[in-house]
Write a structure and sequence with these properties.
The complex is a heterodimer.
Chain A: E1 14-18, E2 25-29, E3 32-36, H1 37-42, H2 46-61, H3 64-76, H4 79-90, H5 95-131, H6 139-144, H7 205-212, H8 227-243, H9 247-259, H10 265-283, H11 287-291, H12 301-312, H13 315-325, H14 336-349, H15 356-369, H16 376-379
Parallel strand pairs in A: 1-3
Antiparallel strand pairs in A: 2-3
Helix pairs in contact in A: 2-5, 4-5, 8-9, 8-10, 9-10, 9-12, 10-13, 10-14, 14-15
Chain B: H1 2-29, E1 32-40, E2 43-55, E3 60-69, E4 74-83, E5 85-93, E6 96-104, E7 110-111, H2 114-118, E8 124-132, E9 137-145, E10 150-153, E11 162-165, E12 170-177, E13 181-187, E14 192-198, E15 203-209, E16 214-220, E17 223-229, E18 238-243, E19 254-255, E20 264-271, E21 278-285, H3 296-300, E22 304-311, E23 321-323
Antiparallel strand pairs in B: 1-2, 2-3, 3-4, 5-6, 6-8, 7-11, 8-9, 10-11, 12-13, 13-14, 14-15, 16-17, 17-18, 18-19, 20-21, 21-22, 22-23
Classes of the chains: A mainly alpha, B mainly beta.
Chain lengths: 382, 328
């Protein structure tokens, strides 16, 4: 794309890979852009990814980020803005409402402007793709409508059945919320939750589809994203979630991958790591934070059941589950560093109170043996 | 020249930012927040945060009520406008929240001069607000009340402002009546009352309680009980009555004392987690020593004669069936 558009992209852009799991990419100006891991795992073809990268490149080519910053600076120093602020201060009543109006008017005009910029970037992106002889299909925009729905996805099997292969003795009741709290009630405060249309920064995907469908390539050819890249992206996402101690999304993503018939034993290792991590968090009285409880209206019933399991599984059961998973046959095909990390976790979890100093010794030992392992990222935290 | 322009632009930006900060600071200084825990069946089921956002006009404020679940996740927001409110109590039944406020025409207002406040009188009310889990305000009930309010210097105020503080003679209490509604208790200079509302916030009955120093309203299922302490400066002197849930009529008031006439000192008055019935526990006071100064002397004078437990049996007459166990 760069070679075919030398006039527009004279200097090779700096492209970052963001470890974030959300399906997104962004341009920050100065010929710098970033693609999230979530997007790599989501796209079906290289052409789809190329469209999104072309879109972000277009933002940089059209100086959208720089212009937005300049416009913001101009607005903040404008007489009109200062007069609106003075008006807020001189008002006796409704000062917060007035201040909100000032800021919302600014957001409104900025959002409208941003949406216009998005359309501009779409148009230029199509031109960049055409110059590069990369197929364009407006259907991509329709697919973008269903991004970031992973945690709303239903599993193919009941949540409990995903743990039978690990010989875990999980009570059905642990998947059902026992709380009398409001989280388990049938509440519906939906009013005002959705972004009003005027505040959205991107045009609706359908609008984008309708605006660009006439430019669809005729001889459409798709190149699938190589399976190895997608697999690596999936693994990196699960690892990053685990590394951030977001245990429910990490576990749920593994369950979704199992639904796609993924039999990679690394995910079994990660199930062990997640249970061990939860047990460690429980010992440190931080189980709640490691689960990352999400309100039920934002997730599928299966995600809720998984989250509820992690909340309600008794600590003693967690301990025996960690031991059980640690003895399963998949460990015979696990990598050396995975086994080393298991030893590290077992040492850290052994006994009631492993001292900080002792944990640091275990960490030092792991880092010395496996300095380039991904697990070193966690071991180094001790 | 370029440098001068840059410096001027920087000065302009800094001045502008400073003006913006001033606005944010002043607007945020008008915002105040109070929170309460929602408890149902002895479990914390959520939290409510009442935020006074801004003065809406001469008398009223804009309020935001944020309702959170037991995990502190917001589940909804209710906005409304009212004159000055102080959130006093919360109850929850059948997916309806009942909030008890003290409302006053002077609450939340600042006065800069003592002369101003000397002339002022406040109209105060006991307010109950009923909100369902769809965020709908089902009903709001308001009862005029005479309170012991006064103007006082606002603590840490830079401009020596005077603000109104008010409280009821007997603090506001709210209890859920299983499957039926809510009970409000309050006491002002005129009377101490229990008011019953249904789940839509409609008043069913109101009943006046006998005079007492303090009151403890409690319910077990659909049974209503009132524990009263008649004299504040002694350990004992408790009395007890059940209230008919249908009519609000108050049953015979029984003095809490053992067969020998010794006063009972109440330590616990709450539902039994296994039966759901209320029980009272505490110690039996040696009557001869009941009137001594209940402070350090009490320890040396051995005022406790034993301990007691009374199980409130709704089937028993007046709902009271005592088991007094004396440990000499």
């Amino acid at each position: 794309m760069i070679a075919a558009n030398k006039g527009l992209i004279p200097v090779r852009p700096l492209l970052f890979l963001d470890r974030n799991e959300s399906v997104n990419a962004y341009a920050i100006g100065g010929n710098v852009l970033a693609v999230n891991l979530g997007l790599i795992a989501y796209v079906n073809s290289r052409e789809e990814l190329a469209l999104i990268i072309a879109h972000e490149l277009s933002h940089n080519i059209l100086n959208h980020a720089e212009n937005a910053m300049r416009q913001k600076a101009e607005l903040l120093t404008s007489d009109e803005y200062n007069a609106s602020l003075k008006d807020v201060l001189s008002s006796k009543y409704g000062r917060l409402t007035k201040l909100k109006e000032v800021l919302e008017n600014y957001s409104f005009s900025r959002s409208r402007h941003t949406r216009y910029k998005e359309c501009e970037a779409d148009s230029l992106a199509i031109a960049l793709l055409k110059n590069s002889k990369i197929s364009f299909n407006a259907d991509y925009f329709l697919r973008l409508d269903s991004t970031d729905n992973e945690y709303r996805t239903a599993l193919l099997q009941p949540a409990k059945s995903y743990f039978t292969t690990y010989n875990l003795n999980l009570d059905d009741q642990w998947f059902v919320k026992k709380s009398k709290g409001l989280s388990a009630r049938n509440y519906n405060f939906s009013k005002g939750e959705d972004l009003t249309d005027s505040l959205k920064t991107h045009p609706e995907c359908v609008e984008r589809y309708n605006a660009t469908k006439n430019f669809n390539s005729h001889d459409v050819s798709y190149t699938p994203v190589p399976a190895s890249i997608r697999e690596t992206a999936d693994k990196m996402i699960v690892w990053n979630l685990y590394n951030k101690m977001n245990l429910t999304p990490a576990l749920f993503r593994i369950m979704l991958l199992k639904d796609k018939n993924n039999k990679d034993p690394w995910y079994d290792v990660m199930v062990y790591n997640i249970f061990a991590g939860l047990y460690y968090a429980d010992k440190k009285l931080a189980r709640f934070n490691s689960i990352g409880v999400v309100p039920k209206e934002l997730i599928s019933k299966d995600y809720y059941a998984t989250q509820t399991l992690l909340e309600q599984i008794p600590a003693a059961q967690l301990e025996s589950d960690v031991k059980m998973i640690g003895t399963l046959p998949f460990w015979s095909v696990a990598s050396v560093d995975s086994k080393g990390f298991k030893t590290f976790l077992t040492s850290v979890l052994s006994g009631d109170d492993v001292s900080k100093k002792q944990q640091q010794l275990y960490s030092k030992e792991f880092l010395a043996n496996y300095p380039t392992s991904i697990y070193a990222e966690i071991a180094a935290k001790f | 020249m370029k440098k001068i322009l840059c410096v001027l632009a920087a000065i302009s930006a800094v001045t502008s930012m400073s003006a913006q900060s001033k606005v944010f600071k002043e607007v945020s200084s008008d915002i105040s927040t109070e929170s309460k825990t929602i408890i149902s069946g002895r479990s914390v089921i959520g939290y409510v945060v009442l935020t006074q956002l801004e003065k809406a006009n001469q008398d009223s404020f804009n309020y935001k009520l944020t309702i959170m679940d037991e995990n502190l996740n917001d589940i909804g927001v209710v906005n409304f406008r009212e004159i000055g409110l102080s959130l006093e109590a919360i109850s929850f039944e059948n997916d309806v929240l009942c909030l008890g406020y003290l409302k006053s025409t002077e609450l939340g207002k600042d006065y800069s001069k003592k002369k101003q406040v000397k002339k002022l009188t406040s109209n105060d009310f006991v307010v109950t607000q009923f909100i369902n889990l769809d965020g709908k305000i089902l009903n709001t009930q308001s009862i005029p009340a005479t309170t012991s309010g006064s103007f006082a210097r606002t603590p840490y105020s830079k401009n020596n402002a005077y603000t109104y503080n008010t409280r009821l003679k007997k603090g506001l209490q709210l209890e859920a009546l299983a499957g039926k509604g809510f009970l409000l208790f309050y006491g002002d200079d005129n009377a101490s009352k229990v008011v019953n509302y249904d789940l839509d916030g409609k008043q069913i009955w109101s009943t006046k309680m006998a005079d007492a120093e303090s009151y403890y309203l409690n319910t077990a299922g659909a049974n209503i009980y009132m524990l009263m302490k008649n004299k504040a400066d002694t350990y004992g002197n408790y009395s007890f009555a059940s209230i008919d849930a249908q009519t609000g009529s108050v049953g015979k008031i029984k003095q809490l004392q053992d067969k020998e006439g010794n006063q009972l000192r109440v330590q616990t008055f709450e539902p039994d987690p296994t039966t759901g019935n209320l029980y009272i526990t505490g110690s039996i006071i040696n009557n001869r020593r009941n009137n001594i100064d209940p402070r350090i002397k009490a320890f040396s004078k051995a005022i406790n004669k034993g301990v007691f437990t009374i199980d409130m049996d709704p089937a028993a007459k007046n709902g009271l069936q005592g088991e007094i166990c004396v440990l000499e």
